[in-house]
Amino acid sequence: MARGTAALVGRWLLWVVACLALAGTGLLTAPRLLDLEGRRGVELVGLTPLGLVPAVVLVLVTAALVALHRGGVRLLAAVLALLGLVAGALHVVWLAPLYSGERPVAAGPAIVVMTQNLEYGDADAVVAEVRERHVDVLVLCDLGEQQWAAVQASDLRQELPFVAESDGGAVAYSRYPLTDDAPIRLHGNGRSVRIESSPVGPITLFALHPVQPYRPGVWQEDMATVLEALRGRLDQADGPVVVAGDLNATLDHRPLRSLEKLGFVDAVDAVNGGFQPTFPAAGRERRFGVTVPALVQIDHVLTSRGLVVTAVDRVATRGADHLGVLATIRSGA
To answer: Where is each Endonuclease/exonuclease/phosphatase domain found (predicted)?
Structure first.
């Protein structure tokens, strides 16, 4: 009797786990599949890389339920297992470019580009990272008045003497001369600037911080403006382009997939670096007393044709709520 009760409880627990896994799989698969554009939809698309986990759990648990049941219940479990397999396959396809693919080979001089959202964080820590990692170009985003003042008071100009800025929303510092500084009119912040005399030749840099997707319509306007500006720059055939900043979008969002169709390659993708989320930085967010790990990869360095990323790393700047991204870039096909 006790053994039968234990078996019944075990089956019910498996069904509870299956239902939870099904819900998680649906929430982390359907928004990406349907390109949902409402606020919650955009947020869920950003979490797409996490969806492989509940899909695998769903397959394993429902496979066990198929073995334990007969008749119609067994058929239901089999259908759920099939759904899990399909969802899992989709996630493998979506994740595969981050882990596999041909890595272009490039030699010769390099330029090191770093981007950091510094709404919070220690400006002197940024200077230390620039010095230690031999950064040549630094993009800072989301600087409020106090943070912008701290950056200006730091020794950053001693390391990177050339600067293009307005109010701290999207700032570019460089070891090499900057010309053709032009704002990009976003609800967030953005600018394009020409980097002259770099080791890999002249480069156009887009320093970007589009608005957050809390207002999806405004976010979509910003992303459309970014795409239009980049398409226009590429049409001019005026040399390679680097995009850097907190883009408030992941590679699963339609705007960044459109950017890839223009020929841009994300630095992490280029080196088969895997899933490297940048927000929130470790220890910056807590929910119900638990520290939230980094979940979304919204900070990026991307390169156009003519440039190749040969190394990438995340940077934990003291006090910042985003991880920075550091990319080593060389000339290439």
So the answer is: 114-322
State the helix-helix crossing angle for 216-235 and 254-261, rounded to 10 degrees.
10
Same domain, yes or no: 78 and 182: no
CATH code: domain of residue 256: 3.60.10.10
Q: Which two tokens stand for residue 12?
A: 């019910």
Domain extent for 19: 2-99
Chain segment 165-190, per-residue pLDDT in tens: 866 679 999 999 999 999 999 999 99
Count of the separate structural domains present in the chain: 2
Together in a domain, 178 and 249: yes
Residues 83 and 114 in one domain: no
Asked whether the whole model's pTM tops 0.85, one would answer yes
Clarify whether residues 218 and 298 are in a common domain.
yes
Q: CB under 8 Å to 2, separation ≥6 — which residues? A: none
**pLDDT tens figures, 147-161:** 999 999 999 999 999
- Last-in-domain residue among 65, 99, 133: 99
